[in-house]
Amino acid sequence: MEQEQNISTSENSNSENHTSQKQSKPKNRSRRKIIGFGVLLLVLIVGGYYGYTEIMFYQTHVETEDAQTDGNISPVLSRVSGYVDHVYVDDNEQVKKGQLLVTIDSTEYALKVNMAKAALQNAKASLNVAQANLESANVSLHKANIDYNRVKDLYEGGAATKSKLDDVEAERESARAKVSVAKRRLSEVQSQIKAKKDDLKYAKLQLSYTKITAPHAGLVSKKDVELGQLIQPGQPLMAVTDVHQVWVVANYKETELNDIRIGQKVNVSIDAYPNKTFRGKVESIAGATGAKYALLPPENATGNFVKVVQRVPVKIVFTEKPNPKYPLRLGLNVTASIDLTQKSEEAKQTASRQ
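Structure (tokenized):
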């Protein structure tokens, strides 16, 4: 009897558990449906908000990733020939404007300066001689004029002969000729002095070229000069990259130029600093597409024509002061977004005036 009661009790408990499991399954399914619907609704809301903000953004902005930072890269060239005496900088070194970079052996050029100085001194000595000769010639002419006037008075009074008058007249003409010669010589010496001064200036200028300095502040790059190397005029030695004056060249599609105006604000994102947004403005728009500046520009009048959307370079300058935490380099990839709302404000002002 006890066994039969236990069996019946276990059967009753099993049936109750089975019934409870059947009741819990619909509840779990409905709960999952509610959670899934909520997640779907949340995704739709977030996606809709993101899509709406993107649409509103692109209605008031034009953006391009075809942009890079740009700046001045000045080549450092030699203006005289000679052997390199000393190199004071190395690659990627920071330099200031006017800082000494390279010196060339100046012995030969210093000798030329000394020779030019000596030639100038000789010319000045010749000038003193020429001036003295001119003064002497003027004295002789003055005496000849006095003698001529005295003899002429005597001749007219019958106290002197015609031959005496002719003699003093010839002496006067000779004195005049000597004065003319002395003046020409003085002029020649003065011209020589001017030429010698120019030679001295040129020699000093050549001597100054033996010291090669930085054209502006920046970083040294592409250094191609070593101690003892023989260099020639015009030979590139290195380059100095100006990292303090950096701008952005963004290549916008020709279909996007309609609303771009000079002075509009720009948000600049640089790949090197993904968490930093730089501020700038449109400074200028190029006068031709990038293809026109190519070495071999396309010629659409020949061959099969395929229309390709062209891009026009737009120069963007930074309006913020350089931040030492985010140093800029030339050639960095940039995403530039121009705010077009400034144009609409200007249009509103124009419309209100009308």
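The chain is about 50% helix and 25% strand. Residues 1-7 have pLDDT under 50 and may be disordered.
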